[in-house]
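Escalation from tier 1.

The customer reports that the assembly of three entities below gives different structure tokens on two consecutive runs. Tier 1 could not reproduce it. I'm attaching the input and our single run for tier 2 to review.
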Amino acid sequence: MTKINEKFRTIPDSKRRAEGPVVVIECFQEIPCDPCHAACNRGAISAFDDINHLPEVDFTKCNGCGLCISVCPGLAIFVVDETWKDDLAVVRLPYEFLPLPQKGQIVDGLGRDGVKLCEAKVVRVDNTRWHNRTPVIWIEVPKDLSMDVRHIRVGGTSLDGQKA
Amino acid sequence: MNDGRIILHPILEFKEGKKVSFTFDGKEFQGYEGEPIACALHAAGVRVLRESPELGRPRGFFCAIGNCSSCLMTVDGRPNVRVCVEKLREGMNVKTQKGKGVLLANN
Amino acid sequence: MSSLLTTEICIVGAGPAGLRAAIAARDMGACVMLVDSEENLGGQLVKQTHKFFGSRGQFAGMRGIDIAKLLSDEVTKDSSVTVMSDSQVVGFYPDGTLAIEKDDCLKLLKPQRVICATGASERMLPFPNNDLPGVYGAGAAQTLMNLYGVRPGNRVLMIGAGNIGLIVSYQLIQAGIDVAAIVEAMPYVGGYDVHARKIQRAGIPILTSHTIKAVHGRQVVEGATVSAVDAQFCIIPDSDRYFQVDTVCLAVGLTPLTELLWQADCKMGYIPELGGYTPFRNENYETTRPGVFVAGDLAGIEEASSAMIEGEIAGLCAAKSLGYEIDDFEDRINRAKTELRVLRQGPTGEKIRQGIASLMQLREECEGA
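Tier 1 run:
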């Protein structure tokens, strides 16, 4: 599995991440696919000259709206907001499993290998008809884990201590 | 009959069909009308569908498209029915098939 | 036996290729009969719960189940395409008559053109006890759970990390079923990296350079032994790992369902990159038997997106060969051929490009001989 670093053109650097919410596209293999371009109404994801090319992101145009997250067939798009709170970042991720977590619930934050990295509070769940059964979960994670937490495991305890 | 059924799914909704009864080796089972016989049996925990002709080895579901002949059973007296594609109907008499099956046998 | 039915174009198989072929031929004005062995149209699309890759022309971003509905609605929106579902084409006679089994009765159909879009079947893998109940084709397990809502098992070992192995593993987790691991003999994951990542972040190990050594159980699968393999795919001693599973899914490749083409005396070549015996065909997807066209996995194992475009080409060309014309024929055919070339021109299309090149070369050699 490709190791992630900021040399990838679809990964925003720490300077950009410090400015506000921004997209992180973990798509590193050329496959014939282009829906992310059409999903972005700010033109931050360029049109594909060749459908097999990797996405090209203009991080100055991206405002981290997250419209592209549930459109990506590879579930490879995340939004990271390192300006959320002093010590907490928000990671928005696609999640196609049941049960869906509830706002306020504490879940396990998992890394790219499925290993638990932290506990994370769910701060929002986007699941409209438009999301087409790919809900987007917003979780709060320690800021230094914003580029590591990419999945959740539901089944922790909610804030009031009840078993979820 | 629901033990092997998926009730909640993040993408799919499973519409329940009409419940029908059938017998498997003389015991009464239930399934949904029109689903393949193999599905109804699998949902009820039945995985062994026949014995192979030469060595008598257990055989079950495999390809789901009526192509591989792993799942041949005797249905209403008819041997070698591909139960992965044969639709379940009320009152069917389904039997584990041993060997090559006997044509024109009585139920 | 009933009297002889006739039609202009018979399409065998209503998967992504057959449905698009039916729409294209219908658009040209041809009289079309679409025959499928299943009740529901859509072929394998009816259980593909994931969103598709490709471009908008091939419905990228839509789930396979929704594409199946869209295409079958289009085919059945009026009576211009005659649909015969639950009907299996079992014979292709020398004079071009098709024998179709429906409800234990045989019907005979003599079409002027045939488009075969029968798809593929799953490959088997030799290992001890591979015949035990609980060893299932990955696509078959997918049918059980996604079409009929039946759990294929409680804990599954997946063999093969191509796209089917990865996708079905993901869908097993979605259905609430444990996946113990994915086992892959090659030293790398064959399927798309993004599919592998979805699996890995759910905590499922992908064991590359590993193979299944044996399945264990008396009446049904109770476990499986997995071993590491070296660069020559030989089992490395003392590397056995035991997995307690009740189901082993095989996702070790597909092979074209060519039975009808053999009966039709279409010339074929053995092309490993395309999944095995594959029909010789020209750029319009017409086989060596005039009037018989192919599309989709039958014409070489590939993705549903390319199958749809091949169906469009075969449908347009079959109708054209009957004398039907539409104003934008050239536009449509050129667009389809361009889309197909573009889909295949990236790194993931290398294998299919090699396969098609071998197929065309072999055909030339056979015709020259």
